C-alpha cells in the first residue's frame, strides 16, 4: 500500500484539536490515512447501469445482519434434544426473541435473493471477463456456501416442516452409487434424522460454514478492490475522456449506506409484519405435512429432480438429474473461458442467451414446483 505523506496524514484543520490529536496518535500506529487514501483513489464508474453495482453491497449487508442476529439467537438456542423447546422459548417467551429470529431468517433469505441478483447482474455486465475470473469463481463458491448455510439452518428448529424437508433433502445424495448412502448417513449421524443430526447441522451452521465463507468473502472483496469495478460494453466503447466516475470514498460509500438503509427498512418491515413461523415439534411417526417443500432457492432443483423422476423410473431419474445439475454448474463456472474478451462477437451473444435461458429455467421450475405439481409425501 502506498504510504501517505506527512501532510496527508494530518487531520483536517476544522477538526477539534483533541479529536485531531487522538486521530493522529491512532493513525501513526495503524496507518488509517493510507486506507482512506486508497479508498479515495478508487473510482466507481457512473453510467446507465450503475444501479447493479449496489447488489454485492446489499448481499454483504444482509450477511452482516445475519451474523449479528445469529449471535443473539446463540444466547438461547440449545442444539440436541432441547432444540425445539429452545426455539419455542425464543419465539414465545423471550422478549423480542420472535423479532430476532424473524430478522435472522428473513436476512438469510434476502441475502440469497440479492446474491442471485448480484450474480446475474455481474453476468450480464460481463464482469467475469479478464481480469475478474477469480472474482466470478469465488462468487459461485460464496453462493453455494450461502445455500448450504440456509440448508443447515433450516433443520435447527426441529419443527415438522424442517424435519420432513431435511429428510427429503438428505435422500438426494443417497442415490449416488456406492458413496451416496454412506455420505447421507454421515451427515445425519445415522439412518434417521435425530438430535444427533441437529448437533451436526448446528456445528456446520455456526462453525464450519462461517470458517469457509468469511475467508472466501475476504478474497472476493480483496479482488474487487484490486481490479476495480468492471464496465458494461456500452461504456468501454466510449473514449476514456467521455466516461464518468465518482470516488469510492466518500461519494459511492455514502450512496451505498443509503441503499443499506433501504435494505434495513425492507428487512424490518418483512420481519415485523410476517414473523417467521414455528410449526409443531417434529414427530417421525406422524405423516409428512401436506405442504412439505424445500426453501425456495432449492425449489428449482427439487422440481427438476421430480421431472426426471417421472421420465426415468426408480433412482435413475434422480441420478440423471444430479448429472444435469453438475453439468449446468460446470458450464456456469466455465463462462469466463467461453467469452473471455470484449471482442466476444458470436460467443458473447451465445453467452447472453445462455444467461437468459438459465434465468427462464430457474423461474419456470420454481413456479412449477410451488403451484403445478402435487406435493410430495
Ligand atoms: C454471496 C455473497 C456475495 C457477496 C457478499 C458479494 C459481495 C460483492 C461486493 C461487495 C462486490 C463489489 C460491488 C458490486 O459489484 O456489487 C462484488 C463484486 C463482484 N462479485 Fe460478488 N458477492 C457475493 C456473491 C457473488 C456471486 C454469487 C457472484 C457470481 C458468481 C459474484 C461475482 C462478483 C463479480 C464478478 C464482481 C465484480 C463486479 C464488477 O467488477 O463489476 N459475487 N461482490
Secondary structure layout:
Elements: H1 6-9, H2 17-30, H3 32-41, E1 43-46, H4 54-74, H5 83-92, H6 97-124, H7 133-154, H8 160-171, H9 179-188, H10 195-227, H11 233-236, E2 244-247, H12 248-273, H13 296-311, H14 315-338, H15 346-371
Antiparallel strand pairs: 1-2
Helix pairs in contact: 4-6, 4-12, 5-6, 6-7, 6-12, 7-10, 13-14, 13-15
The structure holds protoporphyrin IX containing FE.
The site of protoporphyrin IX containing FE has 28 residues, from helix 4, helix 6, helix 7 and helix 10.
Give an overview in words.
The protein is mainly α and about 375 residues long. The protein folds into 3 domains: about 1-40, no CATH class; about 50-285, Up-down Bundle (Cytochrome Bc1 Complex, Chain C), CATH 1.20.810; about 295-375. The protein has helices spanning about 5-10, 15-30, 30-40, 55-75, 85-90, 95-125, 135-155, 160-170, 180-190, 195-225, 235, 250-275, 295-310, 315-340, 345-370; strands at about 45, 245. Helix 4 packs antiparallel against helix 6 (about 95-125). Bound molecules: protoporphyrin IX containing FE (HEM). Protoporphyrin IX containing FE binds near residues 53, 128 and 220.
Amino acid at each position: 500500500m502506498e504510504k501517505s505523506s506527512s501532510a496527508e496524514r494530518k487531520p483536517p484543520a476544522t477538526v477539534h484539536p483533541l479529536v485531531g490529536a487522538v486521530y493522529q496518535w491512532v493513525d501513526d500506529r495503524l496507518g488509517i490515512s493510507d486506507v482512506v487514501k486508497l479508498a479515495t483513489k478508487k473510482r466507481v464508474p457512473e453510467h446507465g447501469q450503475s444501479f447493479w453495482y449496489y447488489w454485492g453491497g446489499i448481499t454483504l449487508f444482509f450477511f452482516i445482519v445475519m451474523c449479528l442476529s445469529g449471535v443473539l439467537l446463540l444466547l438461547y438456542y440449545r442444539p440436541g434434544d432441547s432444540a425445539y423447546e429452545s426455539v419455542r422459548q425464543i419465539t414465545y417467551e423471550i422478549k423480542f426473541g420472535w423479532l430476532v429470529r424473524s430478522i435472522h431468517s428473513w436476512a438469510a433469505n434476502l441475502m440469497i435473493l440479492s446474491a442471485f441478483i448480484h450474480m446475474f447482474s455481474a453476468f450480464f455486465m460481463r464482469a467475469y471477463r479478464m481480469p475478474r475470473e477469480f472474482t466470478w469463481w469465488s462468487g459461485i463458491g460464496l453462493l453455494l456456501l450461502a445455500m448450504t448455510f440456509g440448508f443447515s439452518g433450516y433443520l435447527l428448529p426441529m419443527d415438522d416442516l424442517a424435519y420432513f424437508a431435511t429428510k427429503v433433502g438428505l435422500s438426494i445424495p443417497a442415490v449416488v452409487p456406492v458413496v451416496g448412502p454412506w455420505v447421507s448417513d454421515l451427515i445425519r449421524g445415522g439412518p434417521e434424522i435425530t438430535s444427533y443430526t441437529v448437533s451436526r447441522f448446528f456445528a456446520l451452521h455456526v462453525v464450519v460454514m462461517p470458517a469457509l465463507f468469511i475467508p472466501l468473502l475476504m478474497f472476493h472483496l480483496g479482488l474487487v478492490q484490486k481490479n476495480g469495478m468492471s464496465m458494461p460494453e456500452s461504456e468501454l466503447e466510449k473514449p476514456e475522456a467521455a466516461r464518468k466516475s465518482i470516488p469510492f470514498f466518500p461519494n459511492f460509500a455514502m450512496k451505498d449506506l443509503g441503499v443499506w438503509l433501504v435494505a434495513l427498512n425492507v428487512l424490518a418491515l418483512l420481519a415485523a409484519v410476517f414473523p417467521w413461523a414455528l410449526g409443531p415439534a417434529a414427530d417421525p411417526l406422524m405423516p409428512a405435512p401436506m405442504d412439505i417443500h424445500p426453501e425456495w432457492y432449492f425449489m428449482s432443483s427439487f422440481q427438476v429432480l421430480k421431472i426426471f423422476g417421472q421420465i426415468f423410473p426408480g433412482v435413475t431419474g434422480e441420478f440423471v438429474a444430479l448429472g444435469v445439475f453438475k453439468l449446468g454448474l460446470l458450464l456456469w463456472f466455465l463462462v469466463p473461458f467461453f467469452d473471455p474478451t470484449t471482442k466476444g462477437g458470436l460467443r458473447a451473444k451465445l453467452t447472453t442467451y445462455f444467461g437468459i435461458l438459465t434465468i427462464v429455467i430457474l423461474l419456470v421450475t420454481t413456479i412449477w414446483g410451488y403451484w403445478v405439481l402435487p406435493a410430495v409425501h
